[in-house]
Design a protein that fits this description.
This protein is an all-alpha fold. About 70% of the residues lie in helices and about 0% in strands. It contains 17 helices and no strands.
C-alpha cells in the first residue's frame, strides 16, 4: 500500500517537473504518431467500406470516408466461387507446413554455422549467402522443378522456400548473442549436437524464430506466382491465384459472359455480372489480407526484439 502511494506521488512529481517545452514536444509527438497511424490504417479502412457499400457509387469513387448503402453481397458472391474451399485449404496447408519447415531449417542451419567444428563452415555459409544476390533465372528454375518432378505437385510450394539466406543470417546472428557457456554445460553433461540444438538453443530463440515465422507465413500466404508457373492442376490452385483469376476475369465482364457460359468459370462470370470490377477488387483484397493480419498480434511481442537482436550484432 505504501509502495503504491509513493509511486503515485513520484509520478505526480514527474508530471509537475515537466517544463512547458516538454509538454509541447510530447503533444507534438502524440499528434504526429496519431497522424501516421491514421495514414497507415486508412487504406485498409478504405477497402473495407468500399467492399460493403453500393457498388455503383464505389466504382465512381464516391465512397471515401463512410460506407453507403451497406450490404454484404460482394462477400457472399466471392465465397461462392467454385473451388474456393479447396484453394483455401491449399493456402492454409502451404502456409503452415512451409512456415514450420522454413523456421526449423533456418534455426538448424543458423545454429550449425555458429559451430567452429563444422566442416568447411565458412565455405558453406558463403555459398548459401551468395544465392541472395544471384539466381539462374526463370526458365532454368522451371526446368529444374520439372526435372525434379515438382511441377503439378504440392511440394513445389514447400521445398524451394525452405532455405532462406536472409532468415539464416538473422538466426545465426541471434544465436551468437546466446552465452556459449550454455552449450558447453550441456556438452559436459553428455548432450550431442541435436540435443544441444533442441533442448538448449531452440528454447532460447523464441523472438527470432517468431520473426522468421512472420516473414515466412506472409510470403507463403501471399504467393501466387509459383502457382502460375508450376501448377496446371486446378485442385492445387492456391487461394491467392484463384482470386487473382477472379479479379482478371471481373475486369473483362462482357467477354466472360459470352465465352464462359456452362464452363468451370460460370460461377465467376455470374458473380461478376452482379458486381463491378472495383467492388470485386476491394472484396478480394480484404479476403486475402485479413487472415494474415491475425498472425501479427500473436507474434508482435517477439517481433521487434527478434529483428533488432538478429540484425545489429556483426
Amino acid at each position: 500500500m505504501e509502495l503504491s502511494i509513493e509511486k503515485n506521488e513520484s509520478d505526480k512529481r514527474k508530471k509537475k517537473a515537466l517544463s512547458s517545452e516538454d509538454k509541447v514536444f510530447n503533444s507534438f509527438n502524440y499528434l504526429f504518431f496519431a497522424l501516421i497511424t491514421i495514414i497507415c490504417a486508412y487504406p485498409f479502412y478504405y477497402l473495407i467500406i468500399n467492399s460493403i457499400s453500393n457498388n455503383e457509387l464505389s466504382a465512381l469513387g464516391q465512397v471515401r470516408f463512410w460506407p453507403t448503402e451497406i450490404h454484404f453481397e460482394n462477400y457472399k458472391e466471392a465465397l461462392q466461387l467454385k473451388g474456393l474451399p479447396l484453394a483455401a485449404a491449399v493456402s492454409v496447408a502451404r502456409t503452415v507446413i512451409g512456415t514450420a519447415s522454413t523456421v526449423l531449417a533456418s534455426a538448424f542451419l543458423g545454429f550449425m554455422f555458429t559451430q567452429q567444428k563444422m566442416w568447411k563452415r565458412r565455405f558453406w555459409y558463403r555459398f548459401i549467402i551468395v544465392t541472395m544476390y544471384f539466381n539462374a533465372g526463370l526458365i532454368p528454375m522451371f526446368i529444374t522443378m520439372k526435372n525434379l518432378g515438382l511441377t503439378n505437385s504440392f511440394w513445389v510450394y514447400i521445398l524451394p522456400a525452405i532455405v532462406q539466406p536472409f532468415n539464416i543470417i538473422l538466426v545465426k546472428t541471434y544465436i551468437e548473442s546466446i552465452p556459449k557457456s550454455l552449450q558447453e554445460a550441456a556438452e559436459m553433461d553428455g548432450a550431442n549436437i541435436l540435443q544441444v540444438f533442441f533442448k538448449v538453443i531452440l528454447p532460447n530463440c523464441t523472438p527470432i524464430l517468431a520473426t522468421v515465422a512472420i516473414f515466412s507465413a506472409v510470403g507463403q500466404w501471399n504467393s501466387f506466382q509459383d502457382t502460375l508457373l508450376y501448377i496446371t492442376d486446378q485442385s492445387l490452385y492456391s487461394l491467392q491465384y484463384l482470386l487473382y483469376m477472379f479479379i482478371n476475369q471481373a475486369s473483362s465482364l462482357a467477354q466472360m459472359v459470352k465465352n464462359t457460359a456452362g464452363s468451370s468459370l460460370s460461377n465467376i462470370a455470374s458473380a461478376a455480372t452482379t458486381q463491378t470490377p472495383t467492388s470485386i477488387r476491394m472484396t478480394v483484397s480484404i479476403i486475402v489480407v485479413l487472415p494474415i493480419m491475425f498472425i501479427y498480434p500473436l507474434f508482435q511481442k517477439y517481433f521487434v526484439k527478434g529483428i533488432m537482436l538478429g540484425a545489429v550484432k556483426g
